[in-house]
Amino acid sequence: MKNKPNKLYLCYAGTGKSYLAKEHPNFIDLDSSAFTKDDNWVGNYCRTAKHLLKTHNVLMSCHLPVRKYLTKAGIDYTLVYPDIELSLYWGDLLKKRA
Description:
Structural class: alpha/beta
Largest sheet: 4 strands, parallel
Order of helices and strands: EHEHEHEH
Oligomer: single chain
Shape: globular
Strand content: 15-25%
Number of helices: 4
Radius of gyration: 14 Å
């Protein structure tokens, strides 16, 4: 039986990236804050994610430059965001985390 390919998920803040990666070792939370924000950070961040896809499902931030880079490179991803009905709860959650 063939293994399923790993997937790339671009996730809004507060959607559970860190929790999922902590609970499931086949996921990696690739935190964008670990990358120096110079002219090359988006490329470095996305190339790192592509490399990690060989062995893990990858959870990334959904910054617009990241989405543009991945789309231009032809790299498929799933966008993860909170349901609109949870917007007040989600907003409060992010305020508490700040």
